[in-house]
Write a structure and sequence with these properties.
The chain has 2 domains: about 15-215, Metallo-beta-lactamase, Chain A; about 230-290, Winged helix-like DNA-binding domain superfamily/Winged helix DNA-binding domain (Arc Repressor Mutant, subunit A, Orthogonal Bundle). The protein contains 6 helices and 14 strands. The strands form 3 sheets. The protein has a 7-stranded mixed beta sheet with strand order 1-2-3-4-5-6-7. The radius of gyration is 19 Å and the shape is elongated. It is of the alpha/beta class. Helix 3 (about 190-200) packs antiparallel against helix 4 (about 220-240) and helix 5 crosses helix 6 (about 265-280).
Amino acid sequence: MNASLEIERPYARAEQVGPLVRRVLARNPSAFTFTGTQTYLVGPHGKGEIAVIDPGPDEPEHLSALVEAIGDSTVVAICCTHTHRDHSPAAAPLSALTGAPIVGCAPLSLRDDGPRADASFDDAYAPDRVLADGEAVTGTGWTLRAIATPGHTSNHLCFALEETGALFTGDHVMGWSTSVVSPPDGDMTAYMASLARLYEREQDRVYYPAHGPEVTKPRQLVRGMIGHRRQREKQILRQIESGCTRIADMVPRMYKGVDERLWPAAGRSVLAHLIDLEKRGITTRHDDTWALTHTVEA
């Protein structure tokens, strides 16, 4: 998790960031959202048909900026990658203002998704249409195809803009940090499979994440993310082998130099790794301690 990367913060105004793609940054920066949630407008700038991806928080300034950016365009879809509260709450008020349907991920709500209070689930999210993997939303001159990428959340979708090779990655792949995978809904097994799926997509030329800058070498980044997770896994196994068997004791040793405000979330990712290892028969759990089922190979 790297919060040192600095980029310009053009809040509440639309920027053209690529062919058929504009971006509006919400003023909700935090240790988890970096500079804030980035909402994307897909389609021609003018009087054409557009889609809005991840409308973001229900904040007056952000909604006003979106309405101004939409202008005379017709919004044919408001698409949500997942339902954490920094992504989907503005969908309903934006739908009321534009008449556009809410489409994309399935509803999902849990009472407890770990320590990330800023990322609790949006209980009010009510899509008009849930997109299955491979289904598309279309407008004049563009096609957005849903790519199921569970892991960060079980309902997470990415959206591929087929005409340009752009992929909107939500929180699955971000331009500034690794994603938090927080059980019970966050699933490391699914997350790694979703990363592998994206790595196999050679047609994606650029990623537009919900937080942080665009990714211009996407397969290289995804390969590095897979390697990073495998290194974390090995680090966890070494911790257990050395006698450090509780997550609360592992995190300070594993995340030295990381903002301590992120340690609770880091602990959730460690738990997700341990659950994945348990499924694979490598670790076992005894209350709040963990053990190896066999000796870790050097």
